[in-house]
TrEMBL record, chain A:
Gene Ontology MF annotations: NADH dehydrogenase (ubiquinone) activity; quinone binding
Entry similarity comment: Belongs to the complex I subunit 3 family.
Keyword Transmembrane included in the entry's annotation: yes
Name recorded for this polypeptide: NADH-quinone oxidoreductase subunit
Primary localization class, coarse: membrane
PANTHER family in alphabetical order: NADH-UBIQUINONE OXIDOREDUCTASE CHAIN 3
From TrEMBL, chain B:
Enzyme class, spelled out: translocase
Annotated organism of origin: Acrocarpospora corrugata
UniProt EC number: 7.1.1.-
Name recorded for this polypeptide: NADH-quinone oxidoreductase subunit N
InterPro entries to which the protein is assigned, alphabetical: NADH-Q_OxRdtase_suN/2, ND/Mrp_TM
One Gene Ontology term from the biological process aspect of the record: ATP synthesis coupled electron transport
Functional summary from the UniProt entry: NDH-1 shuttles electrons from NADH, via FMN and iron-sulfur (Fe-S) centers, to quinones in the respiratory chain. The immediate electron acceptor for the enzyme in this species is believed to be a menaquinone. Couples the redox reaction to proton translocation (for every two electrons transferred, four hydrogen ions are translocated across the cytoplasmic membrane), and thus conserves the redox energy in a proton gradient.
Keywords: Cell membrane, Membrane, NAD, Quinone, Translocase, Transmembrane, Transmembrane helix, Transport
Segments traversing the membrane: 6-29, 41-61, 88-106, 118-135, 141-158, 170-191, 234-259, 271-295, 301-322, 331-350, 403-423, 444-468, 480-500, 527-548
Length: 123, 553
């Protein structure tokens, strides 16, 4: 087990150790504890409050647009990171800086469009 | 490591992209008047497309090869190349784009579709379709192909509150995303095996080793050893097949054709025209680039596959078209069948070694004299350069036969779609029976459609279609794929039936009391101009096919 795949052995061993500790703890708990279930004890635990309603909840559809915009910008921000690591290096310079602002301008165009189309107002 | 940019080289896609941005901003800031702004945006888009076409024409006339986004250093590989291949595809895309914009002017006159978004998305697609044939690395190829595909989903769905359009858009989206995923997997395998993304570097990395175990270092070795050992490991073959499958989705080749009928029918007519010409041309450009520039040495893996796909595609497309009663649906399956004809010449085995030997025999290249070889720019150290050379010498006619067929097909198919657009304004049902008696109601439109259909069938006087088929036949037979030529001949006969049945409908009297007509809306003029332009090009191709055949050499 050497070479490329050998380097993954450590990961596999670590995973095995983690699973063993977790499963061992639960197993020890199960073996040592007294077990006297009642109907009350088997209900879902919710900080001492009686559980109410379903697990599904609706959120306001208006959040959708903002979530969407956030995702767009989060994805675009990823492109800034590799750029940020090199733009001050020798050989790069003003051109590199301007190029990134051209990119940002194109994104800004999208925001401008969204603003004019009244997507950003809370209706 | 800043790459210098040659702005003249990228002028055409740049103009399209800036026009797209301009249209979007204008749409947001122009006061929303009824009618006026609608045509203004269309005309601005049209001007942008024509300007880009002018740039491409100027580049073609000057005839020099423009390269930019090159990797610095010796043996530079460039990501963006404007050569005659690119110019043919870009020209086709832009002319087709102008026709689609003219059709859009009529489609948008109905007022059910948001105008600014429509033209913005249309121009974005055109930008991708012009960028794609210029792409010479795998990353740019995939990005450009996505730029062609993504706006089309939205364009299809832009007719709001229309169930069929939404269904078509969803189908197109799912199929396209799956095909992109498949293709990306193939591309990543190729990158993993070769460590290069530029097509010429991939070709060099896959370059076969020869019988004596050395890499081919000189033309003599090519000549002497003759037999090329297949270098492809299984992983490369898997990569090739996956890339092929991804492109097969895009050009609607069997067995990845299911989406075509529903999507074409559900989409607005201009979008169907866009899908059948521009999107298809982009798919073929990518396919040809990858196969003929990066994967030449793997030809043994992909040529048999491509031959079978081509035979299946033309057969299934034709058989499905036989029973259609909906005009656009029939054109959809007919375009699937035509894809088969375009694929067929690509299946001709690119036998590099025998090609080279022929050259040596004919004295085109004297490999024994390093002097002359150098003078001719021959550095026969890599297969890709050999291919480049054989391209220049016109020995590699197979790829050019495909491109020629594609150009002819684009002209006649656009003509058919333009007339369908005109008729669909009075008959939104788009049934084939609505075309009964069209020759008596509007003879010009009927004759144009009849000409387009006869061209698609490949009969005289539709010489454009005939020439296209002859070129393809010649390449297949010369390439030794006799069985494929027979399959294609049978399919041409099947095709005759449904094209001629439609043509015959045009000249039969309409049944009395046809109630499915609606009063025509405004916006007839642009469609008439579109029909005129498409007719002009198709007739020109029929009279002087050298326009296309000569350019391709």
């Amino acid at each position: 087990m050497t070479g490329y795949f050998g380097s993954y052995v450590v990961v596999a061993v670590l995973l095995g150790v983690g699973v063993a500790i977790f499963a061992g703890g639960l197993l020890a708990n199960r073996l040592l504890r007294p077990d006297r279930p009642t109907a009350e004890k088997l209900t879902t635990y919710e900080c001492g409050v009686d559980p109410v309603g379903e697990g599904w909840a609706q959120s306001q559809i208006r959040y959708y647009v903002f979530t969407y915009l956030y995702v767009v910008f989060a994805v675009d921000a990823v492109f800034l990171f590799p750029w940020a690591t090199v733009f001050a290096d020798p050989g790069f310079g003003l051109t590199t800086l301007v190029e990134m602002f051209v990119f940002l301008a194109f994104i800004a165009l999208g925001i401008l469009y969204a603003w004019r189309k009244r997507v950003l107002t809370w209706t | 490591m800043i790459q210098s940019i040659d702005y003249w080289a990228i002028a055409a896609p740049l103009i399209l992209a800036l026009t797209a941005g301009l249209v979007l901003v204008l749409d947001a800031f122009l006061p929303a008047r009824v009618g006026g702004a609608r045509n203004v945006l269309g005309l601005i888009s049209l001007v942008g497309v024509l300007a880009a076409l002018g740039v491409v024409a100027a580049q073609a006339v000057r005839g020099d090869e423009l390269r930019t986004f090159c990797v610095p250093g010796a043996g530079a590989s460039c990501s963006f190349v404007m050569d005659s291949f690119t110019e043919v595809f870009a020209g086709l895309t832009l002319v087709a784009g102008a026709v689609v914009i003219l059709l859009s002017l009529a489609e948008l006159a109905g007022g059910r579709i948001p105008v600014g978004e429509w033209y913005f998305l249309l121009l974005a697609t055109l930008t991708g379709a012009v960028l794609l044939p210029a792409a010479r690395d795998l990353v740019m190829l995939v990005v450009a192909l996505e730029l062609v595909s993504l706006p089309v989903f939205a364009l299809t769905a832009l007719r709001r509150y229309d169930g069929r359009a939404s269904e078509a858009a969803l189908k197109l989206f799912v199929v396209s995303v799956v095909s992109t995923a498949v293709m990306l997997f193939g591309v990543s395998l190729l990158y993993g095996m070769t460590g290069a993304v530029h097509l010429d570097r991939v070709a060099a990395a896959l370059q076969p080793t020869y019988a004596d175990g050395s890499a081919s270092s000189s033309a003599q070795q090519l000549e002497i050893t003759g037999a090329v050992l297949h270098n492809g490991s299984a992983v490369v073959t898997v990569g090739v097949v996956l890339v092929l499958a991804g492109f097969a989705f895009k050009v609607a080749a069997v067995p990845f054709h299911f989406w075509a009928g529903d999507v074409y029918e559900g989409a607005p007519v201009p979008v169907a025209a866009l899908l059948s010409v521009i999107s298809k041309a982009a798919g073929f450009a990518g396919l040809i680039l990858v196969l003929s520039r990066a994967l030449v040495s793997e030809a043994a893996a992909w040529t048999p596959l491509l031959a079978i796909i081509a035979a299946l595609t033309m057969t299934v497309g034709n058989v499905l078209a036989l029973r259609q009663r909906h005009a656009v649906r029939m054109l959809a399956w007919s375009s699937v069948a035509q894809s088969g004809y375009i694929l067929a010449p690509l299946a001709v085995h690119l036998d590099i070694v025998s090609t080279m030997n022929q050259w040596v025999e004919r004295g085109v290249v004297d490999v024994s004299s390093p002097d002359q070889a150098a003078r001719a720019g021959l550095e026969l150290s890599s297969i890709s350069q050999v291919v480049e050379l054989s391209n220049q010498a016109g020995v590699l006619g197979a790829v050019n036969a495909s491109i020629a067929y594609l150009v002819f097909y684009a002209a006649m198919n656009l003509l058919a779609f333009a007339v369908v657009m005109l008729v669909s304004r009075r008959h939104p049902g788009n049934q084939l029976d609505d075309y009964r008696g069209l020759a008596f109601r509007s003879p010009g439109a009927a004759l144009s459609l009849a000409f387009a259909l006869i061209c698609l069938a490949g009969l005289p006087p539709g010489l454009a279609g005939l020439f296209a088929k002859v070129v393809v036949f010649r390449e297949i037979v010369a390439g030794g794929l006799g069985w494929l030529a027979i399959v294609m001949a049978i399919n041409t006969v099947i095709g005759l039936y449904y094209y001629l049945a439609w043509t015959a409908r045009l000249f039969t009297p309409a049944p009395a009391g046809d109630s499915r007509t609606v009063p025509a809306q405004q916006g007839r003029t642009p469609v008439v101009i579109a029909i005129g332009a498409a007719l002009l090009v198709t007739v020109a191709f029929s009279v002087v096919p050298q326009l296309v055949l000569g350019t391709l050499g």
